[in-house]
Each structure stands twice: as C-alpha cells, then as structure tokens.
Known about the structure:
This protein is mostly helical. It is 47% helix and 4% strand. A two-stranded antiparallel ribbon has the order 1-2.
Amino acid sequence: xxxxxxxxxxxxxRGIIAAVATDPRxxxxxxxxxxxxxxxxxSVEALLGAITIQPFGGPGKGVTPSPRPSPALEMSTSDxxxxxxxxxxxxxxxxxxx
Length: 98
C-alpha cells in the first residue's frame, strides 16, 4: 500500500478501536466479567486492503473499481455451525442459481 492508503488504514483502525472501547455494551460486559472474577483482555484484529479506483469516463464522471474475479464459495459443516452461532443463515439458494 502507498503512504496515503496506509494513513487511511491506520485512521480506520483507530476508529474501530475507539468504537469498541466506547460502546456501553462492551464496558457493561467487562464490568460483569470483573464482578465474576475475570479480567478480560480484548484484542481486535482487522485485515485491511486497498485498491486504487480509476476515474470512469474521465475526471468528474464517477469512479469504478478495477474488476476482480469472484472466488468460489465453499462452506463446510463447521463454517455453517460458526455462522449459525452468529445468527447468520447461509442461504444455499444463491449457490443453486449460479
């Protein structure tokens, strides 16, 4: 990544950390854990990537990302179980339509 993209990535990471740290639900959970005798250590990891978008049709005409092929999606039983634990339903209909 170039320096400008790195700067935006750092700014985004700081924003994510601030949002989590100031969320009242986060603090309430940590307080309940402390009351139960636990000291929780939280680590947030984010993978950030950046692509340069090129003007479409010249300056002032909007932007479009460079085309990228979509990877095939293969889900295992463990993947589905994990998604279900997050209350996310994997929809097989989208795969059947392809």
